[in-house]
Automatic annotation (TrEMBL):
The DHHC domain is required for palmitoyltransferase activity. Pfam families: DHHC. One of its GO terms (molecular function) is protein-cysteine S-palmitoyltransferase activity. It catalyses: L-cysteinyl-[protein] + hexadecanoyl-CoA = S-hexadecanoyl-L-cysteinyl-[protein] + CoA. This is Palmitoyltransferase. It comes from Armillaria gallica (Bulbous honey fungus). GO terms for cellular component: membrane.
Amino acid sequence: MICSRTVFRCFKTLERLGDRVTGAAGPFFVALAIILMSIGTVAFFDVISPSLPFPLLTIPLCVLVAVNMWTHYWWACTVPPGFIDGDASPIRGLWAAKKNHVGVSARTTRAVQTKCSKCSMMRPERAHHCRICNRCVLKYDHHWINQCVGLHNERHFVMFMAYLVIATLAFVLSGYPQLLVALGVMGMHVSWPYRVSLTFYLLIYILSAVLCLAVGVMCAWHLAAISAAETSVESQDHGVYKRVARNRGEEFVNSYDLGRRENLKLFFNLEEYPIYTLIVPLRLQPYTDGRSWARKDGYEEHGGVRRGEELTDDDDE
Ligand SMILES: [Zn+2]
Ligand SMILES: [Zn+2]
C-alpha cells in the first residue's frame, strides 16, 4: 500500500515537472513551428508553384491555403481560450459579419456552476482547470504548445490543423517531380536552379509527408469528437459514463449531442455566420458565451449519469 502510494507520488511529481517543462518550452515550440512553416511556404512558392498547371487558378488557391494556415495558426496561439475570470476575447483582427437573420435554432440552457477545487472559482459546465496555465478555461479541450485550446480558439485550432493537412498534402503530391531531381533519380546533370537549397527541400518534403499523416489522423480524431459534441476531455469522461450506465442497464446520453450535422454547424458557428468563413480567414464569435449550452430536446443534463457520479478535475489527481 505504502509502496503503491510512493510510486503514485513519484509519478505525480514527474507529471508536474513535465507540466513545467511544457509551460516553459511553449514559446520555443511556437518559434520552431513558425521557422519550419516559413521554410515550407518559401520552398513551395520557390520550387513547386512555378511548374503547377493552370497557374491562374492553382496559384491563387495555394495562396488562399497558405494564408488560412498562417492566420489560423497565429490565432490558435494568440487568441485567449476564454478564462473564467478573464475578459471576453479582445476585438482584434478581421471579424466576419453575421448573417442577417441570426440565432441558434437549438435550445440553449444555462450551464450548471460548480466550484473548482484548485482555484476556488465558480465555473460553468465544460470548463476545466488547466494545470499548466493554473486557471480554469471555458470549454477546455487541452493545453496546446503555448496556451490552452478552449471556447474562443478551438475553431482556429481545428482550422489550422485542416489547412496544414491540405498544405502538406499539396506539397507532397505536387512536389514529387522536384523530389526526384533532388534525389538524383533524373540523372546527376540536372541542375537545381532554386533559391531554397536541395537539402532544405528534401528535409521539408519528408517533414511534410510525416506531418500530413500525423496531423491528418489528429484532425480526423478531433472532427469525429466535434461531430459527437465532445471536447477531448469529455470524450474520455463519456467513455467512463457509458460503462457506468451500461453496468446499470441504462444508456448514457450526451445532452450536448444534437446530431452530427448540427454539432459541426455549431462548432464552426455556421448558424450565425456565412459558409464562406470556412475558406476566408476571419474571426468569429462562438455561438455561446460558454455559460449556456445547446441541448438535445428533452434533456436538461446528460442521461444515464447520476448526481455525484460526474468526473471532476480531481479525478486525475
Ligand atoms: Zn480552476
Ligand atoms: Zn493551459
